[in-house]
Amino acid sequence: MEILCPTLLNESPINQHPGLWDRADEERNTKKAKNRPSCLGYPVSIFFIVVNEFCERFSYYGMKAVLVLYFKYFIGWDNDLSTTIYHTFVALCYLTPILGAIIADSWLGKFKTIVYLSIVYTIGQVIMAISAIHDITDTNRDGTPDNMTFHTAMSMLGLILIALGTGGIKPCVAVILLSAVVFIAGHNMYIMESPKGNILLQVMKCIGFAIRNRFNHRSKQHPKREHWMDWAEEKYDVCYIKHLSYSHRHSVFLQKLLIAQVKMVLKVLFLYIPLPMFWALFDQQGSRWTLQATTMDGNFGAFIIQPDQMQIVNPILIVIMVPIMDSAVYPLIKKCGLNFTPLRRMTVGMLLASLAFVAAALLQIQIDRTVPNFPSSSQTQVKFLNLENTPVPVVVEGQEPFVVPGFNSSNNYMTLDTENVTVSAGGRNATAYFQKESRHTVLINADRMLQTLNDITEKPNQGMNAIRFVNGFRSHLNFSVKSDHLGPIAPLQASDYFSVTHGKASFTIENEEGQTCHYILQLGFGSSYTVLIPNTFTFGESCTENIKAIQDINPNDIHMAWQVIQYFLMTCGEVVFSVTGLDFSYSQAPSNMKSVLQAGWLLTVAVGNIIVLIVAEAGSLPEQWAEYVLFACLLVAVSIIFAVMAYFYTYMDPAEIEAKFMELEPDDKKRKELEMMTKDNLAYVNNETSNNTDVKQTKI
């Protein structure tokens, strides 16, 4: 068969990569494949790649699970900024695969791309680990870093390198340190092909030429064309040669094939436009939902679940739901006579994700009811603690009189709108100064003297409990819990807050003579207590009888198990949306352009995360539940738009369309070869036709 377009040969991918069609290389790879060691019908090399992928995913998701908590509790950012940086990182991870694909296909090849970028990935993980070591800048060894700028800069550098690494090698195979070693160890078992040119760049060039050509011929004297991509015919006016075999006679595509393939891709990419909104909700499992879990009770009896660990519900449910959907739900729907097409499944997936956020909003409303109302920037809150055994009447200017019981506190914090307040305790007046946007506890002693303590104004971090002691005893006392020592506390003074985990907390109280008393306090998650040691306290077996623990902030009352509902709805949405979406995209894509749709799919994930960071940073909703409802409503609206687009979509058979552009020869053998060309790339065809063994090959 003659080459029909000699004038275009210089622009063809074949001319750009002549080594691709070297017959000796193909024969060498085929011979190498036949001698490949195998296990269970698969080449041993496949197991290197599986281990490699497992290690990388373990590293990536393990780091990402705690990332938003690292921002909030270590770096010290608020919820909105932590969420913004988190989703910026995720978006970058899904933008860089396009760069990785270009590097692999056009320059280094997949194997070298994996190896080199795995080093970048590993360095990024090491830098992230170093950024979390507070001792590096904690010169005074008080447990708090002294130079937070250093830690912030290191963490940002580490995240950038991780994003370049995991995103750049995502189109090939992913790596970290352990997986890189495993992957490189099996390099002799891989069939490594030379870079063939990036089909994504070819598609972009074709689209770019069509747009420029249409713009240059925008006057009315030029006739309209059936499709705007037809304006690229001037460049690809005779034919587009996709593949040539050894004799340049086995795989020639006739005119307009590339344009027809691009049209098919654009038809699917057009359906991708609404998809980012799904990912905007889905990826908040690692940000907003994790922050929501920090305000909940993670005690499951036999074990304790930390907020970041709730994310494991998603992969567990995926393993369960995928076979249930395939073997039970879909067949049942089919038996009911319903035509549950892929696009309809994706629409249902979006609606399920929106329901998940409705469930998250309802849960957030219940959580908000248990969270104290902390003072605003123009308010201050006050409560009174009586250090004596007799009740004391108290009058606060502008408030109703009340009585503080002995060795106890007033019921709740009272909210004041002024800083200077006249207070009467037991008939003695005093003017107290209370700082705005703060909480205070006023100590009342035997002389009716008023002493003000500064209380915490937020829930303790990470489900911890904030505990402090007030010494109403007549001498100095030392307080300790485990290895933490608070030092001597003078009479009528209070200790600083210190954090204690949930469960039974054992405190040791010791006087100057060495006498000790062990006091046990049962703690939940996220509470705050002021423990009063009264003046009637005595050391001995019954030393704890008079100790009074006063709860300033209630523990988290809503159990973390309630989040399973929203995780279940989101996972069901993911199964019918993501799995179906990729399968549909591949079935509608030309055989040589599935990577283009993969890049488009990853781009929708990146754009979805960009939507979240915009809403988190620019949104002005005062309540978190309202933001959940906003996202749910947006996704419902987008799903309606997608349903309309799906209604007008016409399913196509790419192989049938491509076959129309083939010139098939009478020879049955050549006919079969050409038909196989439309299903996969040339290397795949050569391996299938020349390899007579049952061993499957692993190709990089």
TrEMBL record:
<feature type="transmembrane region" description="Helical">
    <location>
        <begin position="596"/>
        <end position="616"/>
    </location>
</feature>
<comment type="similarity">
    <text>Belongs to the major facilitator superfamily. Proton-dependent oligopeptide transporter (POT/PTR) (TC 2.A.17) family.</text>
</comment>
<feature type="transmembrane region" description="Helical">
    <location>
        <begin position="312"/>
        <end position="333"/>
    </location>
</feature>
<dbReference type="Pfam" id="PF00854">
    <property type="entry name" value="PTR2"/>
</dbReference>
<feature type="transmembrane region" description="Helical">
    <location>
        <begin position="114"/>
        <end position="136"/>
    </location>
</feature>
<keyword id="KW-0812">Transmembrane</keyword>
<feature type="transmembrane region" description="Helical">
    <location>
        <begin position="564"/>
        <end position="584"/>
    </location>
</feature>
<feature type="transmembrane region" description="Helical">
    <location>
        <begin position="264"/>
        <end position="282"/>
    </location>
</feature>
<keyword id="KW-1133">Transmembrane helix</keyword>
<feature type="transmembrane region" description="Helical">
    <location>
        <begin position="628"/>
        <end position="652"/>
    </location>
</feature>
<keyword id="KW-0769">Symport</keyword>
<dbReference type="InterPro" id="IPR000109">
    <property type="entry name" value="POT_fam"/>
</dbReference>
<feature type="transmembrane region" description="Helical">
    <location>
        <begin position="40"/>
        <end position="63"/>
    </location>
</feature>
<feature type="transmembrane region" description="Helical">
    <location>
        <begin position="83"/>
        <end position="102"/>
    </location>
</feature>
<dbReference type="GO" id="GO:0006857">
    <property type="term" value="P:oligopeptide transport"/>
</dbReference>
<dbReference type="GO" id="GO:0016324">
    <property type="term" value="C:apical plasma membrane"/>
</dbReference>
<feature type="transmembrane region" description="Helical">
    <location>
        <begin position="345"/>
        <end position="367"/>
    </location>
</feature>
<keyword id="KW-0571">Peptide transport</keyword>
<feature type="transmembrane region" description="Helical">
    <location>
        <begin position="148"/>
        <end position="165"/>
    </location>
</feature>
<keyword id="KW-0653">Protein transport</keyword>
<keyword id="KW-0813">Transport</keyword>
<dbReference type="InterPro" id="IPR018456">
    <property type="entry name" value="PTR2_symporter_CS"/>
</dbReference>
<protein>
    <submittedName>
        <fullName>Solute carrier family 15 member 1b</fullName>
    </submittedName>
</protein>
<dbReference type="GO" id="GO:0015293">
    <property type="term" value="F:symporter activity"/>
</dbReference>
<keyword id="KW-0472">Membrane</keyword>
<dbReference type="InterPro" id="IPR036259">
    <property type="entry name" value="MFS_trans_sf"/>
</dbReference>
